[in-house]
Amino acid sequence: MKIYRFRYRKRVLQGVLKEEFLFPVIGSVFGDFRLGTSPVPIADVRILPPVLPSKIIGVGRNYRDHAKELDNPVPEEPLVFLKPPTALIGHLDAIVQPAASARVDYEGEVAVIIRKRLRGLADDAAVEDGILGYACFNDVTARDLQAKDVQFARAKGFDTFAALGPCIATGLDPAALRLKTFLNGRLVQSGSTAQLIFPIPRLVGFLSRIMTLNPGDVIATGTPAGVGPMSPGDRVDVQIEGVGTLSNTFTRPGAKEDR
Ligand code: MG
To answer: Residue ranges of the domains in the chain?
Structure first.
């Protein structure tokens, strides 16, 4: 099932995609819901970020090949940081270059969307029931500022630096999600959650012992090798098999959004 959040005729709705139509969700996607009987064509809506999280948790160096390319050691425990919810954008929204940075990188990632409140789980606890589904994520990073600062809040926290979407896909195997990133149509990253140093269930349990995970919270699970800078006008597509493609363009500050 693919769950979208979208604007249609000035209303914000959630819907489930069937062929080219979105069937409105009645109820809560985190609990019980049914589908309305008046679908709208997906071509007629503006797609929004699929959830409004209370927090976006990032995990650094969770693929060996990426830790290696930035000359970083492989961590013994998940390396965790936060991105503010104000950084969130959706499919086809623009990533805006901050004046403070001369180098902004894309990082294609698999995002986990939390379904229910999780707190203090045991290391071997089953977490499937606590996960709503998966989405594509671009963990946009000001690489120059990341190198300069002790922590990542500035480098990863600018407005528009958390692209999520286009939808939440449910019922997928978290150990076998294939991820690809394209820069202007050219393949630049390719990986699978089978390669994660800390697999998704372990990450969810680990994080639940640090902070309460709320419905709609987002965990960005790390990026494979192949990160690189974007130039104004570039388009980045993050693609996950079974989810779809999240597309965003990179623009200078003040540039007009094209939608
Ligand atoms: Mg990342």
So the answer is: 1-48, 49-251
CB count in 10 Å sphere of residue 19? 7
* Other CB atoms within 10 A of residue 167 CB: 29
Ligand 1: distance of its center to the CA of 96 in Å? Answer: 18
Query: Distance, CA 107 to ligand 1 centroid (Å)?
Result: 6
Predicted confidence pLDDT, tens digits, the chain (259 residues): 999 999 999 999 999 999 999 999 999 999 999 999 999 999 999 999 999 999 999 999 999 888 788 888 888 999 999 999 999 999 999 999 999 999 999 999 999 999 999 999 998 899 999 999 999 999 999 999 999 999 999 999 999 999 999 999 999 999 999 999 999 999 999 999 999 999 999 999 999 999 999 999 999 999 999 999 999 999 999 999 999 999 999 999 876 555 5
Q: How far is the CA of 127 from the centre of ligand 1 (A)?
A: 22
CATH topology of domain 49-251: Fumarylacetoacetate hydrolase; domain 2 (3.90.850)
Evaluate the omega torsion of the peptide bond into residue 166 and state whether it is cis, within 30 degrees of 0.
yes
Give the architecture-level CATH label for domain 1-48: Roll (2.30)
**CATH topology agreement for domains 1-48 and 49-251:** no
CB 192 within 8 A of CB 120: no
Backbone angles phi, psi at 229, to 5 degrees: -80, 155
- Ligand 1 centroid to 69 CA: how many Å? 13
9: CB partners within 8 A, 6+ apart: none
